Amino acid sequence: MQTTRDMGFSQLYDDYFARVYNYVRYRVEDAATADDVVSGVFERILGKMDTYRPERGPLDAWVFAVARNGVNDHFRSRRWRSWLPLDLLPERASREPEAPALLEEEETRRALTVALRGLDDRERDLLGLRFGTGISNREIASMTGLTESNVGVILHRAVKRLQAAMGGTGGGE
Amino acid sequence: MNQEESGFEKRLARIDFSSESRVRESLRTRLLGGADAAPRSRSWRLWAPALAAACAVLLLMTPALRAPQPPAERFPAFTPPTVSRMPPPPALTPATALAAAGQDPDAGSDVETLLQPGRAFQLQDLFRPVDGGAPVMDLPIGPPAVTVAGRHSSSEGRRAVTWELEGSTFVLETRRTSLDEIFQTGML
Questions:
Q1: Which residues of B touch A80 (CB under 8 A)?
Q2: Cα–Cα distance between B2 and B8 in angstroms, integer?
Q3: What is the pLDDT of residues A75-112, one digit of tens each?
Q4: CB nearest A21 (choices: B9, B18, B28)
Q5: Contact residues on chain B for A35, CB-CB shorter than 8 A
Q6: In this predicted complex, what is the ipTM?
Q7: What residue spans define the domains of chain B?
Q8: CA angle, corner B10, sides to A102 and A125, nearest 5?
């Protein structure tokens, strides 16, 4: 089995960036925050690459466990940083105009972002792991300490609520 | 699970937020170029506000503790503005502009000046040598820190400075105590 050292951080970054970002985005409120959290996650992965042991579990589980911890740390540290007034924070880069073909995709992402606000953090956590990273219910159960059937039930209910909240935007194929 | 739900799940799985990221390439470049600096910058971001607060505490407490004055003068009563009500801090003036105005550019790097309440500064400016030049610690440029004025108070045998932030209050207190009291209050 390949280790992170064998793959090299560059390869790992390219393979996992989108999935880690998607997971984080399910849990935090906006893209700018997701950028901050994901930066911290990959810094941590880079610093801990040598501690990964393939015999203890698949790389997927290790990477997404680091991502989960990164999000949890973000929520814990938010209290400390909340006293900085917003006008001191650097301005975010303004968004470039989107091509018409991308508008529908963006609309779907926006609808999902709004719908996620109606769910609790555990539901967003499981949805992010299932649909943001693509790992199985069994792997999610192993990471979260829930039973596989419990994961399935929570996901089923959360998906139904998301579907109801997103209405036609996220509906059928 | 019905077909409609299954279709919705497939659609969820296809949604890719990563195109929203503004740091994907720059982060890749930074991490692959500076493996040693990366972990430090993350941890620094977490404890930098605490360090800035500690520096402010030292600066504000020192004159009050060293210079004996009548209580009324030493602890003038005033209500500090909370962070949310404070006016935006002035931007740091570039050294060239200060020189053009006939001011000493190095005066702006003085720690006491930097930590004036309401003034924004970069943390690495705290570590700049007195005679100017590059900071002795290479810290990442991040959101500026800002010093908040504390409210001094005193009563018999007790002096305190209170900082009121948005949603939080911090108190630094000097008073006579005893080992019994320390252990009773569960400090350990």
A1: 46, 49-50
A2: 10
A3: 887 655 544 444 444 444 444 555 655 677 888 888 99
A4: B18
A5: 21-23
A6: 0.76
A7: 24-67+87-146
A8: 95
For chain B positions 128-187, those within 8 Å of chain A (CB to CB) are 143-144, 146, 165-168
Residue to substitute from A43, A71, A91, A173, interface B, most B β-carbons within 10 A: A43
Chain-chain contact of A131 with B4 (C-beta, under 8 angstroms) = no
Residue A1 has pLDDT above 50, yes or no: no
What is the rounded CA–CA span in Å between residue B74 and residue B65?
A: 10
What CATH class is the domain A1-79?
Answer: mainly alpha
Domain spans of chain A, in order of start: 1-79, 102-173
Q: What kind of architecture, by CATH, is found in domain A102-173?
A: Orthogonal Bundle (1.10)
Are the C-beta atoms of residues A61 and A19 closer than 8 Å to each other? no
Tens digit of pLDDT for each residue in A106-133?
Answer: 888 889 999 999 999 999 999 999 999 9
Considering A12-21, B30-39, B100-109, B157-166, the range whose residues carry the highest mean pLDDT is A12-21
Within the 12-41 window of chain B, which residues sit less than 8 Å (CB to CB) from chain A?
12-13, 15-24, 27-28, 31-32, 35, 38-39, 41
pLDDT interval class at B127 (50, 70, 90): confident
Q: What angle do CA B179, B184, B188 make, to 5 degrees?
A: 80
3-state secondary structure A128-166: HHHHHHCCCHHHHHHHHCCCHHHHHHHHHHHHHHHHHHH
Residue B147 CA neighbour count, 13 Å, CB half? 22
